[in-house]
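Hi all, posting the design record for the shared folder.

TITLE: backbone redesign
STEP: 1 of 1
STRUCTURE INPUT:
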């Protein structure tokens, strides 16, 4: 499973770019607003930090407008992936963009039916939202079930569309995404930092440090 950073904050992307294990970045209008810079400014900075798929989300609207906006971002860099919301107009836009060879990431996906429509339209990626469906259902495994069901459906019907597990809130979601067979997990900066930590690792390091000092 590949690891993407789910942020538009440049300092966070600068930091994770030094780790050498982050293969892409996803943004959305909320993350862009949080970054304090425009989407185009963010894209221009991010493409120089991470050499991989960079998702830029168009403004939700009719297919024609979303396709026109998508073309602007796609021209900016070869790694740009256009994020399209899961609506009927979005499905039409994905179909058109796929004929132009522009990669797409269909976002706000919460059901296998939505994932089926997106993949049939030719989406490069679909983004099922784990955290938000857990929030809605009050369960801690609804997100896992969603990602697993989409993965099984894609395997059954031979879709090449890749799954980006999104809306990740904690390390357990990362574990669930792996177990469900997601191709990618897009992970917030805080969770990425949490992933490296474990209580027993800290305990072991303390013992080793003490042993080294007593040589
Ligand atoms: C992917 O980039 C999604 O937009 C993102 O993971 C959504 O996360 P949230 O549900 O915490 O807003």
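Okay, here is what came back for every position:
SEQUENCE:
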């Amino acid at each position: 499973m590949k690891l993407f950073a789910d942020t538009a904050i440049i300092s966070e992307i600068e930091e994770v770019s030094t780790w050498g294990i982050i293969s892409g970045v996803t943004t959305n209008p909320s993350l862009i607003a949080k970054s304090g810079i425009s989407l185009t400014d963010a894209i221009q900075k991010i493409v120089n930090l991470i050499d991989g798929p960079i998702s830029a989300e168009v403004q939700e609207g009719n297919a024609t407008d979303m396709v026109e906006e998508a073309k602007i971002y796609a021209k900016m860099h070869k790694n740009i992936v256009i994020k399209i919301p899961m609506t009927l107009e979005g499905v039409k836009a994905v179909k058109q963009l796929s004929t132009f060879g522009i990669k797409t990431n269909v976002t706000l996906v919460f059901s296998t039916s939505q994932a089926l429509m997106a993949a049939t339209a030719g989406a490069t990626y679909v983004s099922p939202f784990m955290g938000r469906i857990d929030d809605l259902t009050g369960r801690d495994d609804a997100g896992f079930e969603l990602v697993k069901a989409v993965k099984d459906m894609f395997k059954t019907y031979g879709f090449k569309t890749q799954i980006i597990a999104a809306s990740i809130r904690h390390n357990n979601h990362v574990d669930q995404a792996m177990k469900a067979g997601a191709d990618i997990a897009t992970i917030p900066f805080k969770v990425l930092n949490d992933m490296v930590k474990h209580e027993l690792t800290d305990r072991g390091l303390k013992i080793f440090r003490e042993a080294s000092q007593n040589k």
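COMMENT: The radius of gyration is 19 Å.
Let me know if anyone wants the other runs.
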